[in-house]
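Hi R.,

As promised on Friday, here is the backbone we talked about, encoded as structure tokens. Could you run it through your design pipeline when you get a chance and send me back a sequence?
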């Protein structure tokens, strides 16, 4: 059994519907869902704002590669097209595997270019860390420490302040 934190983001089309669809596709694997945040674009400012959320998922038989496969399947279902010219450009849906834990609670560490764990830029992204705290107030990013400490750095504190909670857009694990 593994547990994983997945980050969800969308800034094209019906952003909210794309996030809801991920929850439906992951179905009973979804244990907790963060609030939704409207966030400025990261890495490529010339694009619309994102809706972001984080989910905690569990599966009795999934390994880390299975979480990546499910993430990509959700993106494909949303019509995600990767533009090699704009790595951080707009997208219908982005689902990132942030971290995975084994059944005994130990983090999975991987430097595989296909699935680096923990996510190689998670510690730099307030739009991942802040929603994660909705789920796990004492979260730790393996190799980087407490998520609250990461968010309190000067760069991330400013970015976190730019996130707008969207309580009018609830995501639920079961409808």
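Update: got your reply. Pasting your designed sequence below so it's all in one thread:
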């Amino acid at each position: 059994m593994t547990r994983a934190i997945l980050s969800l983001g969308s800034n094209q089309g019906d952003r909210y519907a794309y996030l809801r669809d991920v929850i439906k596709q992951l179905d009973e694997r979804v244990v907790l869902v963060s609030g939704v945040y409207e966030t400025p674009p990261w890495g490529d400012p010339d694009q619309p704002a994102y809706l972001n959320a984080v989910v905690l998922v569990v599966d009795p038989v999934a390994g880390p590669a299975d979480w990546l496969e499910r993430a990509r399947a959700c993106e494909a279902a949303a019509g995600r097209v990767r533009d090699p010219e704009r790595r951080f450009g707009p997208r219908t849906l982005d689902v990132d595997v942030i971290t995975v834990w084994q059944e005994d609670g130990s983090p999975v560490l991987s430097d595989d270019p296909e699935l680096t764990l923990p996510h190689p830029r998670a510690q730099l992204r307030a739009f991942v860390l802040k929603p994660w705290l909705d789920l796990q107030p004492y979260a730790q990013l393996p190799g980087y420490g407490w998520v609250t400490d990461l968010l309190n750095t000067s760069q991330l504190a400013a970015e976190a302040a730019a996130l707008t909670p969207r309580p009018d857009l609830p995501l639920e694990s079961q409808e």
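One thing I noticed while checking it: Helices lie at 15-26, 64-77, 126-135, 147-151, 154-161.

Thanks again,
M.
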